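Submission checklist for the structure archive. All mandatory fields must be present; incomplete records are returned to the submitter.

[x] Identifier: LysR family transcriptional regulator YdcI
[x] Organism: Caballeronia sordidicola
[x] Residue count: 344
[x] Sequence attached
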Amino acid sequence: MDTDPTLSTAPVPASTPNKANKLDKPITPLANLTSGRIKFRHLQCFLAVTQFGSVQRAADSLSITQPAVSKTIGELESILGVRLFERGRRGAAPTREGRLFAPHAAACVGALREGVDELSRHGVEMPGTVALGVLPTVAPALLPPTLAAFRAHWPDVSVRVWTGSNSQLLERLKSADSDLVIGRLSEPEGMVGMTFEQLYREPLTVVVRRDHALVHESSITASVLARFPVVVPPFGTLIRQSAESVLTAFGAQALSSLIETLSVSLGRALALHNDAVWFVPSSVVEHDIELKLLARLPMPFTSADEPIGLILRHDRVRSPALDSLIDAIREAGRLREAVRIGMK
């Protein structure tokens, strides 16, 4: 792809022959950027491999071949003078240098996309787009009021919504595919280059269909609970940790019939039609409880509230539309927190 634009075409002053032939250190990224050697395709491939953890999946996402991605990554590593990925059977994991380079590469790609978008809209009156990532268990309660308020001020701006696990959403944010994320605070190493602003705390609840046998059970024990399928978030998610703590406090930590999913629609269907016991954030099922389709079970919930927050990149250039969306999210979060406090 020889026609790929470079990030910079500024000339570099010529060095003396001795210095040019006797470099003890790799050429610095800054020197290569100003010499025009790093191209957009280098950063695009690098960010795709970082996001997917696989050269093949990165190639599929970019609609190019795996050898093309491998060659491009090899070129970038040669230019920078460092190894960016460790390849193995499980895919491609960023090295320390790759992790250091990632937020800067994402900032470059994000800035370029914003610039092209701005030029496209200028004089053509094209509507803009903002992209956000949100946990599927958070979206049903938080996004309807958020998007209603945002649309009142920006009716011509499109909103692209991504859902997924917290780690997937953060990867999209790092690669500049999303402008912001509504999710949970990750481990410190996963939050490099990003800020977390708490919006509200989300209580965990356990629900079943209204005519479920457990609704009429006077004393729910671990053995009684084990007779039914239990639906929980996937292992490794923060909300799963809360579910595990509740099960442990209930003496049912060794249940064998677990169904792991983040899908709200699947969890709801299993609770309504399969006698499942569903561990789910409270806001997801409030409406169904009001309609008496689902009922809460009395379970021990000590320290089961999880903080939900707004996650942004430090280097993100914010447009007026994005600022307006952030304000709408904050207001929706404030209302959610008021509901939580009122439940206590």
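[x] Structure attached
Curator remark: Confidence is low (pLDDT under 50) at residues 1-30. The longest strand covers residues 194-202.
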